[in-house]
Amino acid sequence: MNYTIREISQRTGIPASTLRFYETRGLLPRVKRDPHGVRVYDDADLDRLGTITCLKNTGMGVGEMARFMALYEQGDATLAERRELVRAQQQALSARIRAMRDYKRHIDEKLEYYDLACACGSEAEARRLRCCPGAAPAGERSAG
């Protein structure tokens, strides 16, 4: 099936300007043109955009994506090299996921702290309760 740049943009959520950028950078090197010079995309271009979007969303840069897509165009002779590019991307993504989990843990702890501070009415009281978990809230302390 054939698609206009507008249809591809609507189907993928990729702005037309980005599609043109991908074409100039070699990520979409074979976009056909009709007799009037209007871009005509096909299902293979749509599949390629799915791969590009995945690579982009996992943090791969445009240069590396262009390299990957150029290797893809060369066929089976580049399978091992493409596998290594994907493996490197997988490792980089795994490292970013680990870092994000650490950030989430930190944010979870902050939220827990602020929930306690809001319930206590002050950060000082929240810090005291976190420091001494068995301590009674300030309003409940016995005069001793």
From TrEMBL:
Keywords, ordered alphabetically: DNA-binding
* GO MF term (any one): DNA binding
Describe the location of the HTH merR-type domain by residue ranges. 2-71
Q: Which Pfam families does the record match to this protein?
A: MerR_1
Taxonomically, which superkingdom? Bacteria
Q: What SUPFAM superfamilies does this protein map onto?
A: Putative DNA-binding domain (SSF46955)
Q: Which InterPro entries match?
A: DNA-bd_dom_put_sf (IPR009061), MerR-type_HTH_dom (IPR000551), MerR_fam (IPR047057)
Give the matching PROSITE patterns.
HTH_MERR_2
Keyword DNA-binding found: yes
Q: What is this protein called?
A: MerR family transcriptional regulator
Native organism taxonomy:
Bacteria, Bacillati, Bacillota, Clostridia, Eubacteriales
